[in-house]
Specification:
Mean pLDDT: 97
CATH class of the largest domain: Alpha Beta
Radius of gyration: 23 Å
Helix content: 10-25%
Low-confidence stretches: none
Order of helices and strands: EHHEEEHEEEHHEEEEEHEEHEEEEHHEH
CATH superfamily of the largest domain: Gcn5-related N-acetyltransferase (GNAT)
CATH topology of the largest domain: Aminopeptidase
Shape: globular
Number of domains: 3
Structural class: alpha+beta
Bound molecules: coenzyme A
Number of helices: 10
Largest sheet: 12 strands, mixed
CATH architecture of the largest domain: 3-Layer(aba) Sandwich
C-alpha cells in the first residue's frame, strides 16, 4: 500500500509528536503530555503526517505568521516547521509530497510567502526556498572590550515573571521596525522562558536583566546563563547570551556593557545576532569582537509575486519587469513591478522582461539580504535589458539588514 499523506486527527497528535522526536533526536518530553500542551496551539488541518499503514513515518506543520518586510510593512507568511521523515522511510519522496501538499494549500489560502529555517542547507532550494536573512555568532573578549560610549538608563536583575510580562511588548516594538522579524505568541514565550515544559528545557541558572530609560520605562532586556570554568585559578568563564533585545540605542549599549562587565567573565558568546551588529563600533578595540560564523537563517519562498512584491516598500521609485521561473509553477510568470518608497503595485504583464530569475532568487532578494548582482554572478538570474540589474538592486536594497531572531 502506498504511503498516505494527510492531515492528522486529534487522536493522532501524540503519535505525530513521538514520530518527530526520532529524527530530531529529542530524548525528553512525554508525547502524550506534549500533545495535550500543543493541541490548543496547533491547527490540525495544517499538521500533516505520512502514514505507512499504521506507522506514522513523516511529520510536517505550517502556521500563519506576520513577516516584517521593507517599509516596514507586514505580510502574512506560512511558517513551515516540524519537518521530519523517519530514518526507515528517508529518501522515498515523502518530504517532497508533504511539501507539495503544504505549498498548494498555502496558494489556495492566498498566502504569498512560505518561510522556514533549514536544518541542513541543501534540503529546500529544490522547493523554491532561498536564504533571505542571515545570522552571525559573536564571541567577545570581555577583558579587552572597553566601550567608547556608555549608554544611558539603568539595568536591573529581574525575575522571569517580570520578563514574561514586559518582554512581549518590547519584542513587538522591535518586530515592527526590524525587517525579517516574525510574530511570537504566548506559547512561544511560555516555552522559551521554560514556564511551560516544551520538552527541551532551557539551561539552568538563566538571569534576566531589564533596561529602563531615564523615565523608568523598560527599553530592552538581556537573558543569559554562565558556564563557569577556571584554569590554574584564572577564570575562563563564558557568559552565554540567550537574547539581547533593545528598543533604543541606549538600551543596546547598556545591555552589551552589562554582559561584558560581569566579574569573572572572560568571554561573551552570542548566537543568532544580526549581520549588522553595532557592537564592534562601540569598542575601543573592535577586534575584541570576533564573528565566529555567518550562516543562513530565514529562508523565503515566494508563492505569489504580485502580492509579495506589492506588499513591501522600495528605496526609490522605479519600474522593473521580472520574468520568474518556478518549476512548481506557483510563482512562474512575468511581473511588472512599479515600486516606490510609499507604495508599490505589481501585476502580470506581457512586456519584455528586464530580468529573468529563478523563484529562489526572488526569495533571496525579497528582504534586501543579497543583491541581484550577486545572484546574476551565481547564475540564479540573468539581465535581459542593459542596466536592469543595477536598477533593480537600487529598488530592492533595504536600509537595514534583515534579521530574524525567532526560532520556529
Ligand atoms: C530532511 C528530511 C525531512 C528529508 O525527508 P525525505 O523524505 O528523505 O526527503 P525526500 O525523499 O522527499 O527528498 C526530496 C529530495 O530532497 C533531497 N534531500 C532530502 N533530504 C536532504 C538532505 N538532508 N540533504 C540534501 N538533500 C536532501 C533528496 O535527495 C531528494 O532529492 P531529489 O529531488 O534530487 O530526488 C529527512 O531526512 C529528515 O527527517 N531529516 C532529519 C530531520 C530534519 O533535518 N528535518 C528538517 C528540518 S528543517
Amino acid at each position: 500500500m502506498p504511503v498516505e499523506i494527510r492531515a492528522i486527527e486529534e487522536s493522532e497528535l501524540p503519535r505525530w509528536i513521538a514520530a518527530l522526536q526520532v529524527p530530531f533526536f529529542v530524548a525528553e518530553g512525554d508525547p502524550g503530555q506534549q500533545a495535550a500542551l500543543r493541541r490548543a496551539q496547533y491547527d490540525l488541518a495544517r499538521c500533516r503526517g505520512a502514514f505507512d499503514g499504521h506507522t506514522l513515518c513523516g511529520t510536517f506543520r505550517s502556521f500563519p505568521t506576520e513577516l516584517t518586510v521593507p517599509g516596514p510593512q507586514f505580510v502574512t507568511a506560512s511558517a513551515i516547521t516540524a519537518v521530519t521523515v523517519l530514518p526507515t522511510h528517508r529518501r522515498q519522496g515523502l518530504l517532497r509530497r508533504m511539501m507539495a501538499a503544504d505549498l498548494q494549500a498555502s496558494v489556495e489560502r492566498g498566502e504569498a510567502l512560505s518561510i522556514l529555517i533549514a536544518s541542513e542547507y541543501p534540503i529546500y532550494g529544490r522547493f523554491g526556498f532561498a536564504r533571505a536573512a542571515d545570522h552571525v555568532g559573536l564571541s567577545v573578549d570581555a577583558s579587552s572590550a572597553r566601550f567608547t560610549h556608555r549608554g544611558g538608563g539603568t539595568v536591573e536583575l529581574v525575575d522571569r515573571d517580570v520578563l514574561r510580562n514586559v518582554g512581549p511588548g518590547l519584542y513587538e516594538r522591535v518586530r515592527h521596525a526590524q525587517v525579517g522579524s516574525i510574530t511570537r505568541n504566548d506559547f512561544w514565550w511560555d516555552t522559551t522562558l521554560g514556564i511551560v515544559d516544551a520538552g527541551w528545557p532551557p539551561p539552568k541558572g538563566i538571569r534576566y536583566v531589564l533596561h529602563r530609560d531615564g523615565r523608568g520605562e523598560p527599553q530592552g532586556y538581556l537573558s543569559y546563563h554562565v558556564d563557569e570554568k577556571w584554569e590554574d585559578r584564572v577564570s575562563e568563564t563564558t557568559l552565554v547570551v540567550h537574547e539581547l533585545l533593545a528598543c533604543t540605542d541606549d538600551a543596546y549599549v547598556r545591555l552589551w556593557r552589562y554582559a561584558c562587565e560581569v566579574d569573572w567573565v572572560a568571554t561573551v558568546k552570542a548566537e543568532d545576532r544580526s549581520i549588522d551588529e553595532a557592537l564592534p563600533w562601540l569598542l575601543e578595540d573592535a577586534r575584541a569582537v570576533r564573528q565566529q560564523h555567518r550562516t543562513d537563517f530565514l529562508f523565503v519562498r515566494v508563492l505569489d509575486p504580485s502580492v509579495a512584491l506589492a506588499a513591501r516598500r522600495y528605496m526609490r521609485p522605479g519600474r522593473v519587469v521580472l520574468d520568474v521561473r518556478d518549476d512548481a509553477g506557483h510563482a512562474a510568470g512575468r511581473f511588472a513591478l512599479d515600486a516606490g518608497p510609499d507604495g508599490a503595485a505589481c501585476a502580470r504583464t506581457d512586456a519584455d522582461a528586464d530580468v529573468t530569475l529563478d523563484v529562489r532568487a526572488l526569495g533571496a532578494i525579497y528582504l534586501g539580504g543579497v543583491s541581484l548582482r550577486t545572484l546574476v554572478a551565481a547564475g540564479w538570474a540573468e539581465e535581459e535589458a542593459p542596466g536592469a540589474v543595477r536598477r533593480a538592486d537600487a529598488l530592492f536594497a533595504s536600509d537595514a539588514a534583515p534579521w530574524c531572531n525567532t526560532w520556529f
